Amino acid sequence: MVMDxxxxxxxHSRNADTRLHPASLTKMMTLYIAFEAIRLGEITLDTQxxxxxxxxxEPPSRLGLRxxxxxxxxxxxxxxxxxxxNDAATAIGEAIAGSEAAFARRMNRTARALGMARTxxxxxxxxxxxxxxxxxxxxxxxxxxxxxxxxxxxxxxxxREEDAGIARIRNTNRAVLDAYRGADxxxxxxxxxxxxNLVASAxxxxxxxIATVFGGQSAAWRNQRIMELLxxxxxxxxxxxxxxxxxxxxxxxxxxxDGPIGQVTRPSGLVSRSIRPLxxxxxxxxxxxxxxxxxxxxxxxxxxxxxxxxxEPDGESDVPTGMTPAPRPDTILAAVPEVEPQxxxxxxxSAPPVEGAGAAAQLAEAALETSEEPELAESAPEPRxxxxxxxxxxxxxxxxxxxxxxxxxxxxxxxxxPPRPAQVPTAPAQPTGPEIVTRASSSGERLFGVSLGPQPxxxxxxxxxxxxxxxxxxxxxxxxxxxxxxxxxxxxRFQGMTEDQAARACARLTAxxxxxETFGPAS
Length: 523
Known about the structure:
Oligomer: single chain
Order of helices and strands: EEHEHEHHHHHEEHEEEHHEEEHHEEHE
Number of strands: 15
Shape: globular
């Protein structure tokens, strides 16, 4: 198969849909899911992975991992991509999905989402196993998706030599990388059942070609044939073409609990439906429109309304009899003390994700060597029953007190709050200074954020904020950008995040070498 990577157009094919053994081309899918898991926050490049006996006992090609030892996830990626280590590939699958069988199910699910219609995986490394089959067409599609979906990782396939933590490793594709101008990847494969396989990619000028060979007679024959196919592609591909970048895969969770931890990934950030969260144990069940309220509840409401009306002094009112005036949403202010939300503890990064977990609980993304948690709508706090007007917090002082850096403060020269008729004072006290009104947070628990560290100037802080926001769109698309002057410098911040979102976003930045730290309401 020969494909123009810019457009996905097939330039040449022969028996490209024949199902054959892919051998170590399988590791292309293993690595694709590894990159995806990092982007979604399931694991990080620096997660310490404990090697199982099963992974350590895989036959060559191997990195040489020992059962019970630990190694950083980034070294497993290097070993699988460059050395084609079977033990490293199995360790990647177990670290992400808990077992190789569960990881194989995830591989098949991802293959379907990418359009690899004639591929079925049984393991993470590609050693011969019944039913473990693919085609030249499908593997060419996967090579193109590696380049476009994870360009920040793609350079690993062109490294001739690299450090894998416990050893220096050399690329199995050095012959083509060194002999063919513009070649920069991707992956070799060989077993006796498969023969000599290779997916190769090369770029010259504005043209990128991807070619695939299955069933080569020898390594030399395979390399020669792949270079001929690349030449054919460059000869037929137009010098200029409209690039058609693929979108990230969309996963359908229905009936398949073994997918990528239950998330639906969409580049637009939209979700197809909003799932009602499960109530916590012991919580009072919410009323739904289809079920009438219990008679006891109606009686309690009626009694509370009667007591409130009996306590109301006589006087004119804009509210019809029998109704309690409701404050406008934009006048609910911060007199009600905020309560720390009870969040369930996140699992450690090194722990494998739980199979079948819900979408809202396990979503999360990062980049190599430099992938939204569905948001549940939060309602504004309701006023207490005895309050019939806007709740305010007024401070009288000679000068306005400085506001905390994380909360917006509105200053007004004076604020007249209409009291109840029976409570009108004969001589209103004159304020001694401007009254400060603090608006309550309408974001519930979204009181956390990420700080990028002090910068020498306001302009530098703004540039860093913008550059980081563009590089991590899914992490910060709903946060607020702000520059705070403190300690003689200018600190760029992303605000308005939950504690979990801030922690995951900072972890992804740290994995890319961008220093950051999280802060909370008191920072």
